[in-house]
Amino acid sequence: MSTFVYMTRCDGCGHCVDICPSDIMHIDETIRRAKNIEPNFCWECYSCVKACPNHAIDVRGYADFAPMGHSVRVRREEEKGTISWRIKFRNGTEKNFVSPITTKPWGKFIPKLSEEDKPNQGEITTQRLYTEPNGLNIDGDLPTINKNTFKKGVYY
Amino acid sequence: MAKIKTHVEESDVLIIGGGMAGTGATFEARHWGRDLKIVCVEKANIDRSGAVAQGLYAINCYMGMQWNENQPEDHVRYARNDLMGMVREDLGYDMARHVDSTVHMFDEWGLPMMKNEKTGRYLREGKWQIMIHGESYKPIVAEAAKKSADKIF
Ligand SMILES: Cc1cc2nc3c(=O)[nH]c(=O)nc-3n(C[C@H](O)[C@H](O)[C@H](O)COP(=O)(O)OP(=O)(O)OC[C@H]3O[C@@H](n4cnc5c(N)ncnc54)[C@H](O)[C@@H]3O)c2cc1C
Ligand code: SF4
Ligand code: SF4
What we know:
- The structure holds 2 protein chains of 2 kinds.
- Chain A is mostly beta strands.
- Among the domains of chain A are: 1-60, Alpha-Beta Plaits; 113-145, no CATH class.
- Chain A has 2 helices and 7 strands, in the order E-H-E-E-H-E-E-E-E.
- Chain A starts with a strand and ends in a 56-residue tail after the last strand.
- Chain B is α/β, with parallel strands linked by helices.
- In chain B, 37% of the residues lie in helices and 12% in strands.
- In chain B, strand 1 (13-16), helix 1 (20-32) and strand 2 (38-41) form a beta-alpha-beta unit.
- In chain B, helix 2 packs across helix 3 (89-109).
- At the A-B interface, loops of A face helix 1, helix 2, helix 3 and helix 4 of B.
């Protein structure tokens, strides 16, 4: 079951249209509210649900954690670095979960490479990637394999 | 049908698709090519595009070479068995030997990973997988790509 929009809560801001990876949330031209134009193509990925400032979008949870007849609410708090889920089961039980979404403040710990020291261009012909070999946390260099050892132990 | 406009953009490196692979390629391209014009073309919003849109709750493959948990050879053997011999062993090996440094980088960038408090090792749920709180896996990697590309469409 795909997403659907509570028309009374939606204000037509378009955040869901912008984020949907499947490009199926569109603003209805007549009523200026969002709608899912192609329910078959909905991944139920919750991207639009999390992006909606008015909590106007609903979608079912995956069957492995929420059997039919439930409702799911989610709140993603970027500044706090958390995501909170509330699942209401059909017998009235409620479960709440909070998980971290990042361990570091946004925007600070990911390097802007163009402002860093240039890598040694001689290294470009090696097999090393960014941070390697140090980032592997092992003694020595990137492991290599002798091609002759491929298919070792294969009897078919 | 809406009119489709053609947009012409010159570039040194053009990356098509900004999923996990594309955003990573954008970042790596900038590492080696500081002065190149790097353009990443993605049909959706790179904060949520691709198979990682909903967030992932595991990293399906981590060697743990630093603790000698698995070595790239083990991964090649596993994949070969799993796929009944239909594998490019060189590619499997190459992926496996690079995956640890990539995972360590995500750890540094703030991806919440579950660890054993005593040993500091990543918690596993099987031989290859490690457990994460990956709701924002894609936004984190997308930030790296946005900082690296000249333009993202
Ligand atoms: C439900 C689900 C759960 C998963 N869980 C896990 C997990 O827990 N752990 C794990 O390690 N892996 C998991 N995986 C696998 C992992 O997410 C994928 O293997 C990985 O994200 C693939 O990345 P990619 O960059 O190769 O492809 P994609 O992420 O599919 O990226 C392709 C990109 O190209 C774009 N694109 C396509 N066509 C065009 C075009 N014509 N023009 C421009 N752009 C285009 C798409 O929008 C997309 O952004 C899961 C996958 C799914 C679907
Ligand atoms: S759940 Fe995902 S695929 Fe479905 S409409 Fe929302 S953003 Fe698009
Ligand atoms: S994000 Fe919410 S309020 Fe904004 S258009 Fe979409 S459904 Fe409506």
